[in-house]
Amino acid sequence: MKLRSxxxxxxxxxAGIPVVIVNRLxxxxxxxxVHFDDKNLVGIQYLLTYAEPMISMVCSLNQHHKVxxxxxxxxxxxxxxxxLSHALMMGKQPQDVSIxxxxxxxxxxxxxxxxxxAVNQCGVKVIDPSRxxxxxxRRMGSKNLQPLYxxxxxxxxxxxxxxxxxxxxxxH
Length: 172
Known about the structure:
The protein is α/β, with parallel strands linked by helices. The chain contains 7 helices and 8 strands. Helix 2 packs across helix 4. The two termini are 21 Å apart.
């Protein structure tokens, strides 16, 4: 089966094929990048309106596919690769880039709640990359000075490889 991503709809994916959803829902919600008919939505009203179609969509997909939602990948405060390389170029002793778990949870709480609602509403599964991206209560942007991100919010090839065991577990 060969599918072109820009033309794929749920109807194009044969029933029974698992669907893994990894996205930046928090970024879209936080930045109000999704627009609704009611232009006056703000705060929690915007977030609740934003969550409903996401939950509906994953529940609809879950009728014919096993759906896995990946917990939000942390967004770092700096461009990880640039930050580390500049520190090295300037002769500084670089430190691994990370954010505190509490900061991550506060920024992603709304998405976690929406994902949990989908679990309760229609039985989708949630997978959490924490085991692979966290150390000592911190969400890591680099490990041993190896960037896990190529910027502040997108995993690098190294970061993607760190998550291979998480995805392998889904398909074995």
